[in-house]
Amino acid sequence: MSAFDRFTDGARATMSRAREESASQGALYLGTDHLLIGLLRVEGRASDALAGAGVELDAARAAIAEFVDVEPAPILPELDAPRHLPFTPRLKRVLELAVEEAASLGHGYLGAEHLLAGLLRNDEGVGFQALVHLGKAPETIRHQLLLSLAEGVVSDVVYETRRSPVDAVRAYLDAFFAGRPDLERVRRLLHDDFTFVGPLMTADSADGFIAKVRGMMAEGGGGEMRHELRRLIADGENVAALYDFLGPGPDGRIAFAEWFRVVDGRIASIELHYDPRPLLP
Protein backbone atom coordinates (compact mmCIF):
# COMPACT_ATOMS: atom_id res chain seq x y z
CA MET A 1 0.00 0.00 0.00
CA SER A 2 1.41 3.40 -0.98
CA ALA A 3 1.55 6.39 1.35
CA PHE A 4 -1.33 7.98 -0.56
CA ASP A 5 -3.56 4.96 0.09
CA ARG A 6 -3.12 5.62 3.83
CA PHE A 7 -4.19 9.28 3.63
CA THR A 8 -7.04 10.33 5.89
CA ASP A 9 -9.78 12.54 4.49
CA GLY A 10 -8.04 15.47 6.18
CA ALA A 11 -4.79 14.73 4.36
CA ARG A 12 -6.60 14.37 1.04
CA ALA A 13 -8.42 17.65 1.57
CA THR A 14 -5.13 19.33 2.43
CA MET A 15 -3.51 18.16 -0.81
CA SER A 16 -6.60 19.30 -2.74
CA ARG A 17 -6.33 22.79 -1.22
CA ALA A 18 -2.60 22.78 -2.02
CA ARG A 19 -3.37 22.00 -5.68
CA GLU A 20 -5.87 24.85 -5.72
CA GLU A 21 -3.24 27.22 -4.35
CA SER A 22 -0.77 26.12 -7.02
CA ALA A 23 -3.38 26.56 -9.76
CA SER A 24 -4.27 30.05 -8.51
CA GLN A 25 -0.62 31.03 -8.98
CA GLY A 26 -0.36 29.45 -12.41
CA ALA A 27 2.36 27.14 -11.09
CA LEU A 28 3.09 23.82 -12.79
CA TYR A 29 4.22 22.04 -9.65
CA LEU A 30 3.31 21.40 -6.02
CA GLY A 31 5.73 22.65 -3.39
CA THR A 32 6.00 22.95 0.36
CA ASP A 33 4.64 26.50 0.08
CA HIS A 34 1.39 25.17 -1.40
CA LEU A 35 1.27 22.47 1.28
CA LEU A 36 1.53 25.04 4.06
CA ILE A 37 -1.46 26.93 2.64
CA GLY A 38 -3.39 23.67 2.28
CA LEU A 39 -2.70 22.84 5.93
CA LEU A 40 -3.99 26.25 7.02
CA ARG A 41 -7.17 25.95 4.94
CA VAL A 42 -8.38 22.54 6.20
CA GLU A 43 -9.85 22.38 9.70
CA GLY A 44 -8.13 19.78 11.82
CA ARG A 45 -5.28 19.15 14.24
CA ALA A 46 -2.69 20.56 11.83
CA SER A 47 -4.49 23.86 11.31
CA ASP A 48 -5.15 24.04 15.06
CA ALA A 49 -1.42 23.69 15.75
CA LEU A 50 -0.57 26.43 13.27
CA ALA A 51 -3.31 28.72 14.58
CA GLY A 52 -2.12 28.08 18.13
CA ALA A 53 1.30 29.35 17.07
CA GLY A 54 -0.29 32.48 15.62
CA VAL A 55 0.13 31.56 11.94
CA GLU A 56 -2.57 33.21 9.81
CA LEU A 57 -3.45 32.45 6.20
CA ASP A 58 -2.87 35.91 4.71
CA ALA A 59 0.37 36.37 6.63
CA ALA A 60 1.61 32.99 5.44
CA ARG A 61 0.88 33.88 1.81
CA ALA A 62 2.76 37.18 2.22
CA ALA A 63 5.74 35.40 3.78
CA ILE A 64 5.79 32.79 1.01
CA ALA A 65 5.94 35.61 -1.55
CA GLU A 66 9.36 36.47 -0.12
CA PHE A 67 10.65 33.03 -1.15
CA VAL A 68 8.82 32.23 -4.39
CA ASP A 69 12.07 31.65 -6.28
CA VAL A 70 13.55 29.35 -3.64
CA GLU A 71 11.50 26.23 -4.42
CA PRO A 72 12.91 24.56 -7.55
CA ALA A 73 10.20 23.43 -9.98
CA PRO A 74 10.66 20.26 -12.04
CA ILE A 75 10.70 20.92 -15.77
CA LEU A 76 8.19 18.50 -17.25
CA PRO A 77 5.87 18.39 -20.28
CA GLU A 78 2.52 20.16 -20.15
CA LEU A 79 0.18 18.50 -17.68
CA ASP A 80 -3.32 17.23 -18.29
CA ALA A 81 -4.89 18.43 -15.02
CA PRO A 82 -3.96 20.09 -11.74
CA ARG A 83 -4.18 16.82 -9.84
CA HIS A 84 -1.21 15.54 -11.88
CA LEU A 85 1.09 18.38 -10.88
CA PRO A 86 4.58 17.07 -10.08
CA PHE A 87 5.95 17.43 -6.58
CA THR A 88 9.12 19.39 -5.95
CA PRO A 89 11.98 17.36 -4.41
CA ARG A 90 11.42 19.15 -1.12
CA LEU A 91 7.74 18.26 -1.03
CA LYS A 92 8.62 14.64 -1.78
CA ARG A 93 10.99 14.75 1.18
CA VAL A 94 8.22 16.17 3.38
CA LEU A 95 6.02 13.20 2.46
CA GLU A 96 8.84 10.80 3.35
CA LEU A 97 9.24 12.54 6.70
CA ALA A 98 5.47 12.41 7.27
CA VAL A 99 5.59 8.62 6.84
CA GLU A 100 8.40 8.49 9.40
CA GLU A 101 6.40 10.61 11.84
CA ALA A 102 3.33 8.38 11.51
CA ALA A 103 5.45 5.25 12.02
CA SER A 104 7.13 6.70 15.11
CA LEU A 105 3.69 7.26 16.65
CA GLY A 106 2.44 3.80 15.71
CA HIS A 107 -0.21 5.24 13.37
CA GLY A 108 -1.28 3.14 10.41
CA TYR A 109 -2.70 6.17 8.61
CA LEU A 110 -1.30 9.46 7.31
CA GLY A 111 -3.13 12.57 8.45
CA ALA A 112 -2.69 16.27 7.84
CA GLU A 113 -0.93 16.42 11.21
CA HIS A 114 1.76 14.04 9.93
CA LEU A 115 2.18 16.19 6.81
CA LEU A 116 2.68 19.21 9.05
CA ALA A 117 5.20 17.37 11.20
CA GLY A 118 7.13 16.45 8.05
CA LEU A 119 7.04 20.01 6.75
CA LEU A 120 8.39 21.27 10.07
CA ARG A 121 11.43 18.97 9.75
CA ASN A 122 12.43 20.09 6.25
CA ASP A 123 14.28 23.34 6.81
CA GLU A 124 15.06 23.75 3.08
CA GLY A 125 11.43 24.06 2.01
CA VAL A 126 9.63 27.33 1.40
CA GLY A 127 6.92 26.31 3.87
CA PHE A 128 9.47 26.02 6.68
CA GLN A 129 11.27 29.23 5.67
CA ALA A 130 7.99 31.17 5.55
CA LEU A 131 7.27 30.19 9.15
CA VAL A 132 10.72 31.37 10.23
CA HIS A 133 10.14 34.62 8.32
CA LEU A 134 6.97 35.11 10.37
CA GLY A 135 8.99 34.77 13.56
CA LYS A 136 7.63 31.33 14.38
CA ALA A 137 9.76 28.44 15.66
CA PRO A 138 8.98 25.37 13.53
CA GLU A 139 10.58 22.98 16.02
CA THR A 140 8.40 24.34 18.83
CA ILE A 141 5.24 23.94 16.72
CA ARG A 142 6.28 20.38 15.85
CA HIS A 143 7.02 19.53 19.48
CA GLN A 144 3.61 20.73 20.65
CA LEU A 145 1.89 18.93 17.77
CA LEU A 146 3.59 15.61 18.54
CA LEU A 147 2.81 15.93 22.24
CA SER A 148 -0.89 16.27 21.43
CA LEU A 149 -0.75 13.26 19.08
CA ALA A 150 1.11 11.14 21.61
CA GLU A 151 -1.75 11.67 24.07
CA GLY A 152 -3.75 9.15 22.03
CA VAL A 153 -6.27 11.42 20.30
CA VAL A 154 -7.34 9.69 17.08
CA SER A 155 -6.64 11.70 13.93
CA ASP A 156 -9.57 13.53 12.34
CA VAL A 157 -12.20 11.94 14.62
CA VAL A 158 -13.30 15.21 16.25
CA TYR A 159 -13.88 16.71 12.84
CA GLU A 160 -15.62 13.73 11.22
CA THR A 161 -18.79 14.49 13.19
CA ARG A 162 -19.37 17.29 10.67
CA ARG A 163 -19.58 15.00 7.66
CA SER A 164 -22.72 14.93 5.57
CA PRO A 165 -24.35 11.47 5.32
CA VAL A 166 -23.26 11.11 1.68
CA ASP A 167 -19.67 12.10 2.51
CA ALA A 168 -19.61 9.57 5.35
CA VAL A 169 -20.78 6.78 3.03
CA ARG A 170 -18.30 7.74 0.31
CA ALA A 171 -15.49 7.71 2.88
CA TYR A 172 -16.62 4.28 4.13
CA LEU A 173 -16.70 2.78 0.65
CA ASP A 174 -13.31 4.30 -0.21
CA ALA A 175 -11.80 2.81 2.96
CA PHE A 176 -13.47 -0.59 2.67
CA PHE A 177 -12.62 -1.08 -1.00
CA ALA A 178 -9.05 0.26 -0.86
CA GLY A 179 -7.49 -2.93 -2.19
CA ARG A 180 -7.14 -4.42 1.27
CA PRO A 181 -9.76 -2.76 3.49
CA ASP A 182 -8.36 0.02 5.68
CA LEU A 183 -10.15 -1.24 8.78
CA GLU A 184 -8.65 1.36 11.10
CA ARG A 185 -10.20 4.08 8.99
CA VAL A 186 -13.45 2.13 8.62
CA ARG A 187 -13.71 1.89 12.42
CA ARG A 188 -13.28 5.65 12.80
CA LEU A 189 -16.25 6.15 10.46
CA LEU A 190 -18.58 3.93 12.49
CA HIS A 191 -20.83 5.13 15.29
CA ASP A 192 -20.16 3.47 18.66
CA ASP A 193 -23.79 2.31 18.64
CA PHE A 194 -23.51 0.40 15.35
CA THR A 195 -25.32 -2.58 13.82
CA PHE A 196 -24.76 -4.54 10.61
CA VAL A 197 -27.02 -7.02 8.84
CA GLY A 198 -25.96 -8.91 5.70
CA PRO A 199 -26.51 -12.26 3.98
CA LEU A 200 -23.38 -13.88 5.45
CA MET A 201 -22.80 -11.88 8.62
CA THR A 202 -24.41 -9.78 11.34
CA ALA A 203 -22.85 -7.60 14.03
CA ASP A 204 -24.28 -5.59 16.92
CA SER A 205 -21.28 -3.34 17.57
CA ALA A 206 -18.63 -1.49 15.59
CA ASP A 207 -15.77 -3.45 17.16
CA GLY A 208 -17.61 -6.72 16.59
CA PHE A 209 -18.11 -5.82 12.93
CA ILE A 210 -14.41 -5.04 12.45
CA ALA A 211 -13.43 -8.30 14.16
CA LYS A 212 -15.74 -10.34 11.92
CA VAL A 213 -14.47 -8.63 8.77
CA ARG A 214 -10.89 -9.41 9.82
CA GLY A 215 -11.88 -13.04 10.34
CA MET A 216 -13.56 -13.29 6.92
CA MET A 217 -10.52 -11.71 5.28
CA ALA A 218 -8.24 -14.24 6.99
CA GLU A 219 -10.41 -17.15 5.87
CA GLY A 220 -10.50 -15.80 2.31
CA GLY A 221 -6.75 -15.38 2.06
CA GLY A 222 -6.82 -11.59 2.43
CA GLY A 223 -7.39 -10.83 -1.25
CA GLU A 224 -8.07 -7.37 -2.62
CA MET A 225 -11.53 -5.81 -2.32
CA ARG A 226 -12.71 -3.70 -5.25
CA HIS A 227 -16.00 -2.12 -6.26
CA GLU A 228 -17.53 0.05 -8.95
CA LEU A 229 -20.00 2.59 -7.57
CA ARG A 230 -23.11 3.10 -9.67
CA ARG A 231 -25.30 5.40 -7.61
CA LEU A 232 -25.79 7.03 -4.21
CA ILE A 233 -29.32 8.01 -3.15
CA ALA A 234 -29.73 10.17 -0.04
CA ASP A 235 -32.81 10.97 2.06
CA GLY A 236 -31.87 12.82 5.22
CA GLU A 237 -29.71 10.58 7.40
CA ASN A 238 -30.37 7.57 5.14
CA VAL A 239 -28.16 6.77 2.14
CA ALA A 240 -28.47 3.91 -0.35
CA ALA A 241 -25.36 2.81 -2.25
CA LEU A 242 -25.74 0.74 -5.41
CA TYR A 243 -22.49 -0.76 -6.66
CA ASP A 244 -20.87 -3.80 -8.23
CA PHE A 245 -18.53 -5.86 -6.10
CA LEU A 246 -15.71 -6.97 -8.38
CA GLY A 247 -15.47 -10.60 -7.35
CA PRO A 248 -15.87 -14.15 -8.62
CA GLY A 249 -19.48 -13.86 -9.84
CA PRO A 250 -20.64 -13.87 -13.49
CA ASP A 251 -18.34 -11.55 -15.40
CA GLY A 252 -16.53 -10.93 -12.11
CA ARG A 253 -19.35 -8.74 -10.78
CA ILE A 254 -21.94 -9.09 -8.05
CA ALA A 255 -24.62 -6.40 -7.66
CA PHE A 256 -24.68 -4.97 -4.12
CA ALA A 257 -27.32 -2.71 -2.53
CA GLU A 258 -26.29 -1.23 0.81
CA TRP A 259 -28.46 0.93 3.08
CA PHE A 260 -26.72 3.24 5.56
CA ARG A 261 -28.05 5.33 8.43
CA VAL A 262 -25.70 8.15 9.41
CA VAL A 263 -25.90 9.92 12.79
CA ASP A 264 -23.70 12.95 13.56
CA GLY A 265 -21.41 12.15 10.67
CA ARG A 266 -20.88 8.50 11.71
CA ILE A 267 -22.45 5.39 10.24
CA ALA A 268 -24.87 3.93 12.80
CA SER A 269 -26.27 1.02 10.79
CA ILE A 270 -25.73 -0.87 7.55
CA GLU A 271 -28.11 -3.27 5.83
CA LEU A 272 -26.46 -5.11 2.93
CA HIS A 273 -28.30 -7.04 0.19
CA TYR A 274 -26.77 -9.23 -2.54
CA ASP A 275 -26.87 -12.79 -3.89
CA PRO A 276 -24.21 -14.59 -1.80
CA ARG A 277 -24.10 -17.80 -3.89
CA PRO A 278 -21.07 -16.79 -6.00
CA LEU A 279 -19.12 -16.22 -2.79
CA LEU A 280 -19.97 -19.55 -1.15
CA PRO A 281 -17.57 -22.53 -1.31
Broad CATH class of the largest domain:
Mainly Alpha
The largest pleated sheet is described as: 6 strands, mixed
Mean pLDDT: 82
Question: Which stretches of 5+ consecutive residues score pLDDT under 50?
Answer: 70-83, 152-161
CATH topology of the largest domain: Double Clp-N motif
How many helices? The count is: 12
Fraction in beta strands: 15-25%
What would you call the shape? elongated
What is the element string, with H for helices and E for strands? HHHHHHHHHHHEEHEEEE
Taking the alpha carbons of the first and last residues, their distance comes to: 29 Å
Radius of gyration over C-alpha positions, nearest whole angstrom = 21 Å
State the domain count. Answer: 2
Question: Numbering strands along the chain, what is their spatial order in the largest sheet?
Answer: 2-1-6-5-4-3
Find the structural class using helix and strand composition.
alpha+beta
User: What would you give as the CATH superfamily of the largest domain?
Assistant: Clp, N-terminal domain
CATH architecture of the largest domain: Orthogonal Bundle
Number of strands: 6
Q: Roughly how much helix do the residues carry, as a percent range?
A: 40-55%
Keywords:
281 residues; alpha+beta; Double Clp-N motif; Nuclear Transport Factor 2, Chain: A; 2 domains; six-stranded mixed β-sheet; 12 helices; elongated
